[in-house]
Amino acid sequence: MSAKQGARERFNGAQDDLIALSHRIHAHPELGFEEEKASAWLCDALDEAGFAVEKGICGLPTAFWARVGSGALHIGICAEYDCLPEIGHACGHNIIAASAIGAAMAAGKVADEVGLTISVMGTPAEEVGNASGKILMLERGGFDGLHAAMMVHPAPMDMLQAKIIAASMFDVHCTGKESHASAFPELGVNAADALTIAQMAIGLLRQHIRATDRIHGIVTHGGAAPNVVPAHTSARYIVRSETLDQLNELRPRVYRCFEAGGLATGAKVEITGGDKPYAEMHHDADMAALYRANSEALGRPFPDLGEAGKRPTGSTDMGNVSRAIPSIHPMIGINSLPAVNHQPEFTAHCVTADADKALIDGALAMAWTCIDMAANAEVRERLMASR
Description:
It contains twelve helices and twelve strands. The chain has helices at 3-27, 36-48, 93-109, 111-114, 133-139, 191-205, 244-265, 285-297, 318-324, 344-349, 353-375, 377-385; strands at residues 52-55, 64-69, 73-79, 116-122, 148-150, 153-155, 166-175, 214-221, 232-241, 268-273, 327-328, 331-333.
């Protein structure tokens, strides 16, 4: 029996449990850094599969790693398991988590035979947009010793090297002065007006930014009552650019829009966060080619998406991992159109038969890619020399 056949046999034995785990995580959505159930369920499954599991790594209670094998080439498979507010697993992190441990179980079956060490990296809080799980784990040594990393992410269709751009999320707090909005408005300082002016300034700024830049946000608090001049308002915004360098050029310009709101109204403006942004994704070409071949062997080709394939798909802290070690982050289709990521309809699609098939194919493609990375002498030596 070949190594890939052995990996598939191991996965087949766990397949039903992995699908059930994906559905269980989906049914119990948890926000970033609060994924206590999902983290525990994943660790329990890995422990039962014979992995050495360590919980609460890098000072993060819901982060973990689980390791199997003792080969020279050490590959990390990243699991994400947080949800979005109100709309749950609208980005399919339940599939990401289950496919990650499925891939690790399958590759782990033959790890020593082919010269691999496999680690599942339990990475919380991908959706938080700043100072996320992977970023903090990178800073605290959580990825030390890995030669490469990978994960698959659900999407409407399969994409091998999606265009993933840099992003920075921050909070804005405006402080003014309360007053009776009708009797004594001249005594108030309107913090809501400060946000309104900032939003107008951002709208005007959009004419003068790159076509690939993105600025978007929400007002998280707009005041307490309509007859009280708002003294405390807040907003949460995300700024995105193709690269971290471009992001560092754009972000101060957006900050000045908020500062203009404070200057015009007399409100005090404080900006917090934005200090640990997500980087653009650098897909490793060799790893991507191996993954492509394995995906196609499973009957899952990558369509030519034309111009649609060149537009930004979003941002992830996996980009930060890719700047530290060779990585891939292919998108795996769940046949959801017209529903797309971050819509409630996409949430519903993440526990369909198509989603379960994506879990299976993604896990096997990753497991086989790990095996090929160990078997290909040129790729193996390059990856091991990079650390």
